[in-house]
């Protein structure tokens, strides 16, 4: 099934509209938080520039992963799923190709937002932290790619994009990617800390302080990944 | 064509195994709400056969093929492909399918799409060869979304061929194709059947069934109303037509001629339908001396079709 994976990878990197949307928007938001608005006191601006950089890189990349579902929904309404159903490609092969290509396709948006942090936000970090951030943020999008796939097989055409827009917003805000969870009321904060977006963000936030991901973060992300992946495979089979 | 086709030479064992059943549906029925789409259909396609599934729109052709391929669950009955559940046969790469309503990836260049699909099969045709066979080579670098409907249909054909499958199932493959593309498609189909591959195609073009199938399955109203070699299906309408012009004679005189089953008068032309045109002609010339412009006409599939389906268009 490698030939189909190669095709999906090429498609992921050949989609200029998607790349601009998912890198341009987080970069613009990043500059808004750190350069235009006064979100934090003057003496914490440096920390916030780094924190927000990680938040926005996570935000953009998880959006890219979620919106794999939009492409799937479109392909389904145009009958590509029907074509695939008469090829030897199994359900699992298709889902894996979508997952891998979707996750690979978010790499540019991570790199661009981190570059914006370094060049425009004045973020200074130990050299090793930068590749570590890319890798950690990247790993964090895996469950969202699976969730996107599940949505792509549940809804068709534009409906999937609208629904994911909502899910994207709720997960991002709940996960403290727009504003830190520290400003949330206690019950919401507890909920937030078990949400996938918060734990995805925590991978990068902790790396800023030179810390490893917590066991909770790894466990929570793994659980969400398994759940969403199972959901995606189930929806794919139902959709045939 | 100087192409040696070495890539698709099939093992002798496969060729000798011509008695295997490539595709089979048994007692298959399907309803959509109150409408009966298929009503107890049985069909066995042996390996090496070229079978045309012929019928008016709504006869159940697509429904039958979809059930045969496992894409649609039958209301009753079973389907098998090469003795396996259809889904398993598809997974094994033994089948290439052109579906009417299949979509394509519009953002992908033709060549890449064909190559990706070919790569899913265990022993695909070389991509270059597929592109030429399906007549898509000249626009292989263009994105699918920029192609005309006919060109996209050729891409669908390329995807069906890509795996060099033992069984090719084509649902209305020439819809939207111009004359040259049609000819090229059938040429490729013929080349495959000459190698002992099996082809099943649905069409409502009678000439396609007549020219390219060695067996015709006639579907009407969800039932198979005729099934056999093209000649046998034609013969079902009954004999040959003898037409001539005559000064005047009454119908009963013609009806008495040997072999004649039916007499029509069309103006000054008399049309005899006969089971033995030689005997009819001999007697005709012996008994009537003012008979002129004699022609004999073999029935075409069209008249077989009209007479067997009752000319219904649903």
Automatic annotation (TrEMBL), chain A:
GO terms for biological process: response to antibiotic. It comes from Nonomuraea jiangxiensis. GO terms for molecular function: ABC-type transporter activity. It is found in: Membrane. Its main location: membrane. One of its GO terms (cellular component) is ATP-binding cassette (ABC) transporter complex. It holds the Pfam family ABC2_membrane_3. It is a multi-pass membrane protein. InterPro entries: ABC2_TM (IPR013525), ABC_2_transport (IPR000412), Nod_factor_ABC_transporter (IPR051784). It comes from the Bacteria. Keywords: Antibiotic resistance, Membrane, Transmembrane, Transmembrane helix. The chain crosses the membrane at residues 12-33, 53-74, 95-120, 132-155, 162-181, 212-234. Residues 42-234 form the ABC-2 type transporter transmembrane domain. This is ABC-2 type transport system permease protein.
From TrEMBL, chain B:
The keyword ATP-binding applies. GO terms for molecular function: ATP binding; ATP hydrolysis activity. Pfam families: ABC_tran (PF00005). It is a peripheral membrane protein. One of its GO terms (biological process) is response to antibiotic. Keywords: Antibiotic resistance, ATP-binding, Nucleotide-binding, Transport. It is found in: Cell membrane. Transmembrane segments: none annotated. GO terms for cellular component: plasma membrane. Its main location: membrane. Residues 23-246 form the ABC transporter domain. SUPFAM superfamilies: P-loop containing nucleoside triphosphate hydrolases (SSF52540). PANTHER family: ABC TRANSPORTER ATP-BINDING PROTEIN (PTHR42711:SF17). This is ABC-2 type transport system ATP-binding protein. It comes from Nonomuraea jiangxiensis.
């Amino acid at each position: 099934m490698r030939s189909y994976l190669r095709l999906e990878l090429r498609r992921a990197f050949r989609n200029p509209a998607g790349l601009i949307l998912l890198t341009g928007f987080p970069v613009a938001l990043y500059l808004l938080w750190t350069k235009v608005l006064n979100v934090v006191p003057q003496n914490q601006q440096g920390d916030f520039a780094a924190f927000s950089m990680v938040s926005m890189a996570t935000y953009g990349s998880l959006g890219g992963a979620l919106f794999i579902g939009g492409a799937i929904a479109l392909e389904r309404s145009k009958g590509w799923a029907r074509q695939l159903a008469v090829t030897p490609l199994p359900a699992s092969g298709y889902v894996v190709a979508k997952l891998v290509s979707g996750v690979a396709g978010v790499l540019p948006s991570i790199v661009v937002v981190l570059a914006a942090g370094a060049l425009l936000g004045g973020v200074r970090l130990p050299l090793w932290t930068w590749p570590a951030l890319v890798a950690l943020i990247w790993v964090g999008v895996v469950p969202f790619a699976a969730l996107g796939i599940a949505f792509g097989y549940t809804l068709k055409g534009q409906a999937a994009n609208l629904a994911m827009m909502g899910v994207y917003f709720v997960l991002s805000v709940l996960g403290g990617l727009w504003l830190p969870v520290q400003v949330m009321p206690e019950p919401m904060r507890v909920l937030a800390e078990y949400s996938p977006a918060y734990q995805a963000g925590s991978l990068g936030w902790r790396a800023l302080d030179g810390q490893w991901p917590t066991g909770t973060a790894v466990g929570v992300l793994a659980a969400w990944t398994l759940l969403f992946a199972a959901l995606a495979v189930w929806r794919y089979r139902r959709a045939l | 064509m100087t192409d040696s086709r070495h890539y698709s030479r099939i093992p002798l064992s496969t060729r000798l195994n011509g008695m295997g059943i490539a595709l089979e549906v048994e007692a298959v029925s399907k309803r959509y709400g109150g409408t009966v789409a298929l009503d107890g259909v049985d069909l066995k396609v042996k390996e090496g056969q070229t079978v045309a599934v012929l019928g008016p729109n709504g006869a159940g052709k697509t429904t039958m093929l979809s059930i045969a391929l496992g894409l649609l669950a039958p209301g009753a009955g079973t389907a098998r492909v090469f003795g396996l559940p259809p889904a398993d046969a598809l997974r094994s790469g033994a089948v290439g399918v052109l579906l009417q309503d299949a979509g394509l990836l519009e953002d992908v260049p033709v060549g890449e799409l064909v190559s990706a699909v070919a790569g899913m099969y265990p022993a695909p045709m070389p991509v270059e060869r597929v592109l030429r066979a399906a007549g898509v080579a000249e626009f292989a670098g263009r994105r699918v979304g920029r192609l005309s409907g006919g060109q996209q249909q050729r891409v669908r054909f390329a995807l069906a061929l890509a795996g060099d499958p033992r069984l090719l199932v084509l649902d209305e493959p020439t819809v939207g194709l111009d004359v040259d593309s049609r000819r090229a498609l059938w040429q490729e189909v013929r080349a495959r059947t000459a190698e002992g591959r099996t082809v099943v195609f649905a069409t409502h073009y009678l000439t396609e069934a007549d020219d390219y199938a060695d067996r015709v399955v006639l579907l009407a109203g969800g039932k198979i109303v005729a099934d056999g070699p093209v000649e046998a299906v034609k013969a079902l309408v009954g004999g040959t037509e003898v037409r001539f012009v005559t000064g005047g004679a009454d119908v009963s005189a013609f009806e008495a001629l040997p072999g004649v089953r039916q007499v029509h008068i069309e103006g000054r032309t008399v049309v005899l339908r006969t089971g033995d045109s030689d005997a009819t002609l001999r007697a005709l010339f012996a008994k009537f001396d003012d008979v002129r412009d004699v022609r004999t006409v073999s029935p075409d599939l069209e008249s077989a079709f009209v007479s067997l389906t009752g000319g219904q268009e649903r």
